[in-house]
């Protein structure tokens, strides 16, 4: 399986498995094998980034948490917590998906339920970072 090189400074030590014609990647927080989709490839980079680079414990990472938005059940990709409080909401897209105002608004809607102080929208190649302020979202950038 040919996986795209994503825009992260570090190289992470992923565990892969192949079953028939499908590839799986090991998810550290959930301690389970997940189907390796393009979106999952991006999410696993973020998980490893927060575990190895930022030093968070696996228990501080919440994946695929259900949220109800306008009566519809949605799932967030990754939530970083601090003392069980939401800190950073990460929304992952496949590398081929362009990050637009519309995709950012989707993430902001999810965060209206979650209440994280920061959000990251990423397709693995491009990352959009924003802090929630009194006046709405303030965009910023930093190196990964």
Characterization of this structure:
- The chain is globular and about 50 Å long.
- Helix content is 21%, strand content 38%.
- The chain is α+β, with helices and mostly antiparallel strands.
- Strand 9 and strand 10 (127-133) form a beta hairpin.
Task: Give the topology, please.
Blueprint: E1 16-19, E2 22-27, E3 32-35, H1 38-53, E4 61-63, E5 66-69, E6 72-75, E7 78-82, E8 85-92, H2 101-114, E9 118-122, E10 127-133, E11 136-140
Parallel strand pairs: 8-9
Antiparallel strand pairs: 1-2, 2-3, 4-7, 5-6, 7-8, 9-10, 10-11
Tags for this model:
six-stranded mixed sheet, 2 helices, 144 residues
Question: How far apart lie the N and C ends?
Answer: 25 Å
Order of secondary-structure elements: EEEHEEEEEHEEE
Return the structural class: alpha+beta
Number of strands: 11
Number of helices: 2
Strand order of the largest sheet: 4-7-8-9-10-11
Helix content: 10-25%
How would a textbook summarize the main sheet?
6 strands, mixed
Work out the strand percent: 35-45%
Q: What is the radius of gyration computed over CA atoms, rounded to a whole number of angstroms?
A: 15 Å
Mean pLDDT: 93
Unreliable spans: none
Based on CA inertia axes, which overall geometry fits? globular
Concise account of the structure shown:
The chain contains 2 helices and 11 strands; from the N terminus they run E-E-E-H-E-E-E-E-E-H-E-E-E.
């Amino acid at each position: 399986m040919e996986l795209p090189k994503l825009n992260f400074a570090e190289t992470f030590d992923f565990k892969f498995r192949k079953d028939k014609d499908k590839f799986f990647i090991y998810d550290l927080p959930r301690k389970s094998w997940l189907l390796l989709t393009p979106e999952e490839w991006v999410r696993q980079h973020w998980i490893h980034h927060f575990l190895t680079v930022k030093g968070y414990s696996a228990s501080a990472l919440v994946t695929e948490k259900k949220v109800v938005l306008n009566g519809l059940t949605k799932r967030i990709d990754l939530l970083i917590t601090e003392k069980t409080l939401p800190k950073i909401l990460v929304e992952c897209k496949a590398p081929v998906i362009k990050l637009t105002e519309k995709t950012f608004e989707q993430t902001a809607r999810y965060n209206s339920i979650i209440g994280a102080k920061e959000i990251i929208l990423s397709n693995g190649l491009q990352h959009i970072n924003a802090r929630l302020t009194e006046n709405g979202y303030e965009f910023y950038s930093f190196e990964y």
